[in-house]
Amino acid sequence: MENQDLQLAITEIFPSAIFEEGSEWPTLTIEPDQWLSLAEQIRNQQTLWFDYMFCLTCVDWKTHLTMVYHLSSTKYRHNLVVKAKLDLAKPQIETISHIWRTAEFHEREVYEMFGVNFLHHPDLRLLILPDGWEGKNPLLKNFEDPINMIKL
Amino acid sequence: MDINTKINSEKFPGQIEELPGGGIVLSKLDDIINWARSNSLWPLTFATSCCGIEYMSTAGAKYDFSRFGFEVARASPRQADVIIIAGTIVNKMAPVLKRLYDQMTDPKYVIAMGACAISGGPFFYNTYSVVKGADHIIPVDVYVAGCPPRPEALLHALISLQEKIKSGYTREQIKSSSI
């Protein structure tokens, strides 16, 4: 599907969708609690068929966090970006690791680096960081490490 | 202090007296051992980031470090003489690097290639994960500046290491300039 048609199709199943202008792929911003139901629909609906998640990451904007999901369809070759704004004080969102299995370790990485709590994740623990880094979240802008870090 | 002026890397270390039907070599055994050792250094295939690409390029046909006796890159530290730290050393890699170095048989040499291996380089500030210089973990013989250094620079470092070995001085002697 072309971007324009994709945008229309998603607006149909999800009327409150807000699309960003001027990006290469349709970029959709949603509320975190809408994510799970949307994910299930765009994964399974025959005309959309987003069966491949190729990127899952997070951005620290200092005022809030943004989860970013990049989805693709191997059948139709169309792409979609979904963003969800999270509260910095208590960042949490539903896991989608049962929909796209690749998200299981992606979410573990975001969990250790940004401290986002993925609800109902089957195995939420540190991915790369060694033991003892629980709760330290080195990719947050306000992260301080007096032992290892030298400030400019 | 310049070691290069103290040694002549071109010639065989000793005198050859030509005699009818043969000859006699006059030299010190240490000098001959160092001369032989320096011309057959086996590097360990070890690279942790983009410096590894330059390292591979140096091994390739265009620059070809086999011209200087480095062609036998070994995948096992037990068979290697020199480890070229080509890339960033992170805190998780540090114990691995130490173990590799400990597994190498003496005499062993270390080249710190590029800014990351020298000081942490571009990752010196504001990082929680990078070791600020590989010499915090293992002793380094030759440092190569660059990010990453060009193959010519690595070749120069390898030749410098050879000259260092041929000179016969220990790392401590060279550092304290007692020669």
How would you portray this structure in words?
The complex is a heterodimer of chains A (152) and B (179). Chain A is of the alpha/beta class. Helices cover 22% and strands 25% of the residues of chain A. Chain A contains three helices and seven strands; from the N terminus they run αββαββββαβ. Chain B has 179 residues and is an alpha/beta fold. Chain B has a domain at 42-158: 3-Layer(aba) Sandwich (Rossmann fold), CATH 3.40.50. In chain B, 32% of the residues lie in helices and 14% in strands. In chain B, α1 packs antiparallel against α5 and α2 packs across α5. The longest helix of chain B has 17 residues, at 151-167. Chain B starts with 14 loop residues before the first strand and ends with a helix. The chains are: A alpha/beta (152), B alpha/beta (179). The A-B interface holds A 128, 130, 138, 143, 145, 148-152 and B 91-92, 124-129, 132.
